[in-house]
Amino acid sequence: RIQSRSAVSIIAEARKLKGTISDVGGPSANMYGSYCKLGFPDSCPRRSCIFPEICPNLVLDHEAQLHLLDAISKLPDIKHVFIASGIRHDLVLGNKRYIKAIATKYTGGRLKLAPEHSAPNVLKLMGKPPIERFEAFSKEYFEELRSSGLKRQIIPYIIIGHPGTTMEDAIALKHWLEKHKIHVEQVQEFTPTPMTISTCMYYTGLDFESGSPIHIPSPGEIRKQKELIVKTAPATKPRPRKTFIKA
Q1: 154 burial class (0-12, 13-18, 19+ CB within 10 angstroms)?
Q2: Where in the chain are the domains?
Q3: Model pTM?
Q4: pLDDT computed for residue 240 by the predictor
Q5: Alpha-carbon distance 188 to 115, whole Å?
Q6: Which ranges of the chain have pLDDT less than 70?
Q7: Helix pair angle (62-73, 96-104), 10° resolution
């Protein structure tokens, strides 16, 4: 469940700052002010309000976040207000006003988004939306930039080695990145974290939903996946090609 501070509290803290606020929000920033029509009942059978599809009882008020950002940007000592990361891109598709505001006013050059992978089976295990929704958001975002004469970047957050990820999935991710001319300089290796479904799958080797066995990459395989994905220095460029051929 997303916990949202009051606008009064956030603005009061912002008054103590000067210059540029580099990131307002955090994870799932654009779920600020969201709530369940039913009050998040304990009897709800869903484990996620937004996966595999957005629950019809979830109320998403993006205007609340935009009003908050506007109020902060009008403070006398604040020059710029940005959202550097944390936007759930799948929740704002088609919301032209929101995407335009983020693209033209509240991005400081780079917007970090989290598709996390491109392979459908891996995204399903992660509980993430299909990669097509990331592509759709990117298209809308860059259309707004072009119409405004601005240049910005989207930096994708990628995770490798998640339970269920094979070398074939890593190769598919490599091809997707190449197709979209995305150069990744950093990736996050999967790290087991207590009380998460991904960690449960990591230790059991089973799909959380179906109970079927899934592939758990070894540390050595994770390194190979990383070599495929990460943009390397010129001196080591041949190595990813070797790994690709070997796979």
Answers
A1: buried
A2: 1-86, 101-247
A3: 0.88
A4: 52
A5: 12
A6: 1, 231-247
A7: 30
Q: Which CATH number fits domain 101-247: 3.30.750.200, 3.30.70.260, 3.30.460.80, 3.40.190.10?
A: 3.30.750.200
Q: Is 201 exposed, middle or buried (0-12, 13-18, 19+ CB in 10 A)?
A: buried
DSSP 105-123: TS--SEEEEEEE---HHHH
pLDDT (0 to 100) of residue 201: 98
- Return the residue matching tokens 């070797």: 242
* Identity at 124, one-letter amino acid code: K
Cα 203 to the center of its chain, rounded Å: 24
| Cβ atoms within 10 Å, residue 233 | 6
C-alpha torsion sign, points 132, 105, 156, 212: negative
pLDDT value for 234: 45
Give the pairing type, strands 188-189 and 153-160: parallel
Which of 75, 59, 46 lies closest to 2, judged by CA?
59
Joined tokens for residue 94: 């088609």
Contact 92, 137 (CB under 8 A): yes
